[in-house]
Design a protein that fits this description.
homodimer, 183 residues, Rossmann fold, 7 helices, 44% helix
């Protein structure tokens, strides 16, 4: 089956990981639009949304970040079971947490996309002023400044939004999904 | 406050109504991307998603369509209460149902957007083949063919995607939201 047909392919989870301001959420919504245009039901779970709803009680400690990832992974699995494509856009800085998310969702359904935009570029964008705050010592635990980001070792895809347009990023993800569906 | 600031404005519900293939979902996801880029948490509830999850048990009778709209409106209210912008993209063909949705969400938070793309254009697009099926007598109850669509009498905004680009549609919605926040 080729992507571009309006018939559904097996619902999967696209897991976008990377620094704040790397472009995860922009890709997520553009991807959701592209998939919806093909008649596929999808849901975006981005960090801001999740932190205000499903994970409202959680902070940014090591444990809370793990729990955040765990709950989103569970939700993705549930969405996939309901026939919905899940698109998670979360910093999800720890490798172990992402690997557990993969296990939860199922390896054959999990597409890890490392949004690898360099820290300097993310910091120059800083749409929420988080990096500025972190550098001023007003925000501890910001991934990339006061907290670690563990780079994915074998993501299905790597996208650097300082080099690639959103459209190109979406196309790249669709190719990966389409390739899997055809396999 | 002007839109374009990264500070949040009071969370609202954008309710996109119109025929199948009018462009509701495309606008919804583009809008979600634009709002997320401003640091606002948002969730898209489109017909395909809702029919596979929250309203899986419902069909397309008059009663089930009403119940579909009712549940989505409840969900929108909940999301708004949690600080999340809700973007519903549903045919929602009946005026009474949309008015009840407005009451549920609250008039001051509800932005009804009539996606007024003409039937002939929607039918020419027909990405899911629904109009073709309906014309062939294989699909009863398709809004615009076998079922009625009650045009909104006083929507906050009207968008015809055969005349306006998606970007222009998003800008128009943002202007309405921004105008409200400033009022």
């Amino acid at each position: 089956m080729t992507i571009g047909e309006t018939t559904a392919f097996p619902p999967c989870t696209i897991w976008l990981t990377g620094l704040s301001a790397a472009g995860k959420t922009t890709i997520a919504h553009a991807l959701a639009g592209a998939l919806a245009g093909k008649g596929m039901a999808c849901e975006v779970l981005d960090g801001d949304l999740v932190r205000q709803t499903l994970c409202r009680d959680l902070g940014f400690s090591r444990e809370d970040r793990s729990e955040n990832v765990r709950r989103v992974a569970q939700r993705c699995r549930q969405l996939n079971a309901e026939g919905v494509v899940a698109i998670a856009a979360l910093v999800s800085p720890y490798r172990d947490d992402r690997d557990r998310a993969r296990e939860t969702v199922g390896n054959d359904r999990f597409v890890e996309v490392f949004v690898s935009t360099p820290l300097a570029v993310c910091e120059a964008r800083d749409p929420k002023g988080l990096y500025k705050k972190a550098r001023a010592g007003q925000l501890a635990n910001l991934t990339g400044v006061g907290d670690v980001y563990e780079v994915p070792l074998a993501p299905e895809l790597t996208i650097d939004t300082s080099l690639q347009t959103t459209d190109a990023a979406v196309e790249a993800v669709l190719r990966v999904i389409g390739g899997r569906a055809a396999a």
